[in-house]
Amino acid sequence: MLRYSITAMLVFLVLAFGVLAADKEVKCTCVKVDVKKKVITAKTEDGKEHDYDVNDETKFIGPKGGVSDDRLKDDRLVKGVELKLVVAGNNKTLREVHLPMRKSTKDK
After folding, report:
1. Of 50, 45, 48, 42, which is closest to residue 98 (Cα–Cα)?
2. Is the pLDDT of residue 12 over 90?
3. What per-residue string of b and e applies to 58-79 under the rule 16 or more CB within 10 Å gives b?
4. I need a surface site. Which of 10, 84, 89, 94 has the fewest CB within 10 A?
5. Where does the pLDDT of residue 36 fall: very low under 50, low under 70, confident under 90, or very high at 90 and above?
6. pTM for this structure?
7. Domain 24-98 falls in which CATH fold?
8. Is the Cβ–Cβ distance between 93 and 38 less than 8 Å?
């Protein structure tokens, strides 16, 4: 009985780590943000455009590690900006959106 319990626990741990490992990091350029549909369209390094879904668990993280409460309405999410996305194993849903630095509004 103990042997079966240990085996079941090991199988569970392997599957749990497999799910976590399925997330992938993508460097891309923002093409479009649809706030109503909760979708970010991005062009990846291979030149293809992909639509990624944003849900309530998606984190929007700034370059210094702070979390953006504006989420899809953040002023840094504009066409042409470089983003780093953490995509879930389904290759459709975003877990994290890493935002760039804000551009300075000061005149130089």
Report:
1. 42
2. no
3. bebeeeeeeebeebbebebbee
4. 10
5. very high
6. 0.75
7. OB fold (Dihydrolipoamide Acetyltransferase, E2P) (2.40.50)
8. no
Cβ–Cβ < 8 Å for 95, 23: yes
CB atoms within 10 A of CB 29: 14
Residue type for 25, please? E
pLDDT digits (tens, 9 = 90+) for 52-93: 999 999 999 999 999 999 999 999 999 999 999 999 988 899
Q: Are 82 and 23 in contact (CB under 8 A)?
A: no
* Separation CA 50–CA 95 (nearest Å): 15
Q: For residues 93 and 105, what is the distance between their CA atoms, to the nearest angstrom? A: 33
Single-letter amino acid code for the residue at 33:
V
Residue 26 tokens, joined: 């993508």
3-state secondary structure of 23: coil
